[in-house]
Each structure stands twice: as C-alpha cells, then as structure tokens.
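haha ok so turns out i had the wrong file open the whole time. this is the CORRECT one, sorry everyone. sequence first:
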Amino acid sequence: MKVALVVAVARNGVIGGDGALPWRISDDLKWFKKNTFGKPLLMGRKTFQSIGKALPGRDNIVLTREPLFAAPQVFVARSMRGGLALAASCAAAREADEFCIIGGGDIYRQTIARADRIYFTRVDAEPEGDAYFPALEAREWRTTKAGGCEKSDKNEHACEFFILDRDGAQRSN
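then structure:
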C-alpha cells in the first residue's frame, strides 16, 4: 500500500500557526480534495480540530493519545503503528492504491521515511508559524510539476503544485 503525504509549505517551511493554516488559498483546497477524495486520511488530533469535522468521501483517522477523544464519523488510533495499519486496511476496503497523511508537523516527521509520494504545494509566502514540514533530501525524490495558482481574490498567495515520488532505490523504512 502506498503512503502519500499531502502538504502545503511556505518558502520558510511553515505549514501552520496557532492551530490553523496561515493562508487561504482556494485552489490549494481544490488540489487537496482532488488528491485525497475516496482515500483514507491519517492526521493528528490538532490537525483534525483545525479542520473541525470529518471530511466527506474519505475515511478520517485521527491519531491521538487523548483517552477521551471521540468525534462523529472518525476512527481513532492510539499509536502510529495502529493508525498506519488502520489506514492501510481502509484503503484496501476502498480499493484505493494509497492512503494520505495530512499532518501536522509531528505526524509528518514520524512518517516521512515511509512516504512513497508527496502531493506538495509550495506557497509563495513566508508567514509566521509554529508548525514546520521536515526538510526533504532532493536526491530522494523525482519531482513533477502539476500546476499552480496566481494570487487573486480567492487565493491569498500564489502557489505551485508538485507531485514528488520517492526514488525506489532511496526509500528508507
């Protein structure tokens, strides 16, 4: 089962601040939906709380150590191992070829070595923030440009979309 990370990253590595995205980019949300719809999503509790609800058309799996955490239409995993196994099981049941990890920063750090693909949005901004995406080794990834967007009334910043596929010889687990 393929593991895909889905992330929007500012030029300075910021992915979030104060429990929220530090930008509003409509075209990036469309890119996110296009690449995640029909697939299981694995996320940390804080990421789920920033979204505020289960995303439709996807199995939502929240990784948390909070013993009382529960939310409608959400599976709860208490360990990374359990979350990854549940996401793989949900993907197989859906006949999806991958499941998606959607953050936050700590979840990305724990799973980046397992990733086969990254749906990567480069945001043309340098906002303040407290959550960062881990540095990538460029030599480990084949990068394909997949579009982008201009700054507009719907897009607070311009951005570029990329699909990064791990070079099979460089994969580490």
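The longest helix spans residues 80-94.
again sry for the mixup
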